[in-house]
Amino acid sequence: MTLFILLLMPLLGGLLAWYSERFDAGLPKKIALLSLLLCWLPLIPLLSSMPFDASSLPRSQWLIDESYPWIPFFNINAHLALDGLSLLLILLTLLMGLVALSSAWHEITKRTGLFYLNLLWTLAGVLGVFLAIDLFLFFVFWEVMLVPMYFLISIWGYEQRHYAAVKFFIFTQAGGLLMLISLCALVGIHYQQTGILTFDYLILIQNPISGDLAFWVALGFTIAFLVKLPALPFHSWLADAHTQAPTAASIILAAVLLKTGGYGIIRFVLPLFPQASIQLAPFMMLLGVIGIIYGAMMAFVQTDLKRLVAYSSVSHMGFVLLGCFAFNIYALQGAVMQMLAHGISTSALFVLVGMIQHRYHTRDLNELGGLWLNLPKLSAFGLFFGIASLGMPGLGNFVAEFLILIGSFAQYPKLTILAASGLILAAVYSLLLIYKTFFGQTKRPHDSKIADTNTKEWCTLISMCFILIYLGLHPQPFFDLVPITLMKLSFIADDIGALL
Amino acid sequence: MTDYSSLLALVPLLPLFSALILLFSKLPKLWISIFAVGSVASVALISLFLNVIFWQQSDFVLTSSLGTWINLAQLNINFGLYLDPLSLVMITIVSGVGALIHLYSTGFMYQDSDFKRYFTYLNLFISAMLFLVLADNLLLLYLGWEGVGLCSYLLIGFWYQDRKNNLAANKAFLMTRIGDTAMAIGLFLLFTQLGTLDIQEIQIKAHAVWSLTNDNNNNTMASLCCLLLLGGAVGKSAQLPLQNWLPDAMAGPTPVSALIHAATMVTAGIYLIARNSQLFQLAPDVLYLVALIGTFTLLLGASAAMVQTDLKRILAYSTISQLGYMFLALGVGAGASAVFHLMTHAFFKALLFLAAGALIYSLHHEHNIFKMGGLLKKLPVVAVSFAIGCAALASLPFTAGFFSKELILAQVIASGHSGLWWAAILGAFFTAFYSARLFFVVFLGPTQLSPNAKPTKSMSLALVILSVLSLFGGIHPEGLKNLMPQLDTDGLSTLQHWLPILLPFIAISLAWWLFKTKRFGKPVPTFMQGVHQLVKSGWAFDHLYQTIFVSPFKYLCQVNKGDFIDLFYRLIEKTSGRLHMAFSQFQNGQLRRYNASLVIFCILAFAWFIRGELML
After folding, report:
1. Domain residues of chain B, as ranges?
2. Which terminus of chain A, N or C, has less C-beta within 10 A?
């Protein structure tokens, strides 16, 4: 029941928050906070019993596994399960949920009930995506996280919110449709080949489908995940959605929604279609590298601070794609680490942009500048997260990028060298961000009464700093949580590689 | 030995803790100074103590581990510290010179409102630099490497309100980052080939793997690894072709230039090659390249230094040139003399920068040497220490710089590269010339600006100690000579022995003559102006890179600002919009439109039908 409680908490909390608005407009955010905090409750026994030594981890992959029949006619079950990988991403989701809440606390003033309903339902959808093991259920959650996000952008967003929201919706919906088709094809082929009709990941994975069609099914899944990641050439929704979304939604988008793409590739594409993924790997890695470079180049010329950060996401997520398809333990671990580190560093940047926008009512880089003079604390945080995003050793992003590159170098040295040029380009746009925003002469000398970070903002940001430092200096516990899932993957890859 | 291990662990951690305390506290300036200087001074004392302990031993190793970093399959990275004679020399220089510069800064920066931020960065830098030199694996070294780069960036742009400083900081970071990325790729290649990143293991395994597979000494893989590491070294140590960030880096506060851009960080490249000297021995072609880069850089730097007018830029080009000497020494297989010169250079160049800082401090932040003059009597302490620094830079006999530079020159000739030797001699001539020019112009002649402030006591103390070190710091190099194998220098001819000793005097006499006849600071004759401008701009590398890299990149990015991939999706959007417009014409509710389309359709259908009939 644990996992279902975890899922129901934000769903019910959202409804309650919506309903409570008619009593008091300040109530919904408190209810949202409460329900997010309650989400941690089911996880506490798990975390407290978590062994800190890798060798003593249970040998079975799943820490918790729960299943109830749902649509017996098609053998569809409400099957949720949790392993190290999903645990990490769920922790990230819950943490970033709190961060989003904190940034929305004073920023959102209209239709608060509906806002928190959508926020919590998006989070619930994401949690469901990370937990669902039945493919049909997975698809349902995939859609659940989409619709509330559409409303978040189109109701509470900035100037061009409707365009951005529709673009976001169409892109992800098209990806979702592709996934639905591939999903049905997968189940159908599996039924033909084994005579078992099932949507259950655990059963499907035992007999990976073969044949020409398998390649196309794999491609369908992959593209659906690439849209979410986002990888080139499906990235263009991201810049608009990020730029127009309210800060809280940008945080959720960057921190967790994009991660569902990487998660989907690691969890579903690689194990379900080992042979096809190896065929796809060179193209996917090429796409990843192009994404790294292209995203960085796009980030470099943006004048809108939020757009800059959005394109830097494209660049960072290119590393995830590279790591996923390198079929190598280092690169896969790096990809997971990149998802966590990018989730934190980028959403911290969005938090900062939100704070700047809240104070100065602009995100235009040419109108900002010299913030350090009046807002030294906020600027120091900006400096920190800018430096994190260019991959400074000692922070999580470096560990991730280093592992991805060292892992993929063995097989694809030339591609990796190209990807490594992303390290230079990341410095280019990160330094530009710092240069344009925080340094230089202040353009608004009369704004000296604008307040620096308050306690709530300071605590949010400093805890994100510490998490990044912890990821960067002591990543071992996170590696130890993942290997059982991932080790298997790289072994599968080795076997297949030997067969090919 | 365990006691010493924990002592060793304190070395990089003390400044780090101090930086953290400064970051999160609100202390008065006195306490900030005590923490900042105290932490680095205690590290200096620890390293002196370690020197005493290991004085007798020529070959010792002390290790210490601060925990595990990454442990995945084959990749085992610890926060491991490794102390051997080479790293002991380095931590002594870093902490010793570092402590003096911290002390000096308490006076120099006292008026600055951002006193705390300055010392936070400075302590962080010392910590990163100590991690760099003590690291037992290349990844930890890389952490320190990027850490010092970051602190350098932060300190160059310390006065952040001036856009010029920010641009210089960005340039320094990006140009070194290019080298660093090459080095990172080198790490990937080494790990893929040898399965380890532990520095000592790499040296052993490289010899085992690459010597066996190939008999002629040119193993491509070894060369490739060394070449990539060299990329990092070239960036950090401001050598060709990544040298032109250093003159701009002078935008930072002067003590920063002394510490980071003269004494410590820029020598990291030399340290990297010296640390991996056994690996580099497997790649003689790369070593030769190192020597060539060193030679060209020392000529470039020295020639550019001769025509600068900005006090700090002269010193910056001089640093580039002196680093070139160290590269030359490394390249010809004289690692020990490179490290020796690294040490003496740290003393006298730090001295020169600090004395220059004292000048700038006293003269309303004036940088142009031709607006100074006649300061000998007004600022005697500064003048004497500057004179000592210049003498050591020009390698006048019995100064510290003399011993180390002589050693390098002797070793170059012993290695049989007489062409490189002549180039180095020419460089030495240039060096003595610009040192003399600098001193004469600033301190002799008529007074132009009179100083409005005297250097504080802490500043003077640092100057005095560094002066002593620049004079006598080269007397006892025996311990250093054992660091690495070096070449036999017995067979020098008379010319080869005496030319380097006499040359500085000739150069100084020439400078004196030019100074006396008032030829310095005069406009250059027209036919020379082009060359003068070229040399003054550091051989126009800025312009070159701007044209072939920066502008095309900016242009490419700017052209694509609208994201051409998005155009495709916009096309879909537009097409469906147009189609919608077109088709909705048929349903606009106007009866005559419906009627007309009905008639047209009937006619077309009839025509089609008729056509079919006719075909039959």
Report:
1. 1-240, 283-522, 562-615
2. C
